[in-house]
């Protein structure tokens, strides 16, 4: 009886190891797939890239957002970028382009808007590589220079 039980437990354990390895390889594949999608898609305008891991958030969010001349962010459907984060205001922030420069403005949100971990109180100019924090979400501002 003991050898049968021992063999059964051994095969179950080996099966769990293969299952774990399968999921690790799948996650690596999905990450590489997203990187390739990003490289194949050409962004002519600046964009926001999600810095958070999507799996840690309890709401749906895209990995990349193109920026237009004026982009509003918030929980409300009227925003250009709707983020259903419970820590975001309905109209949380606005990104505006003026003379080929982008500016970030907090729209009197309850929890504030952060630029590089510092809460902003006025309109601030964005530069490539800036981190924008809104609620539980953090974006990287990317403006590719020719």
From TrEMBL:
Chain segments annotated as transmembrane: 12-32
Stored SMART domains: FHA
SUPFAM superfamilies, alphabetized: SMAD/FHA domain
Span of domain FHA: 71-120
UniProt cross-references to Pfam families, sorted A to Z: FHA (PF00498)
Keyword annotations: Membrane, Transmembrane, Transmembrane helix
PROSITE patterns: FHA_DOMAIN (PS50006)
Protein name as it appears in the record: FHA domain protein
Organism of this sequence: Natronincola peptidivorans
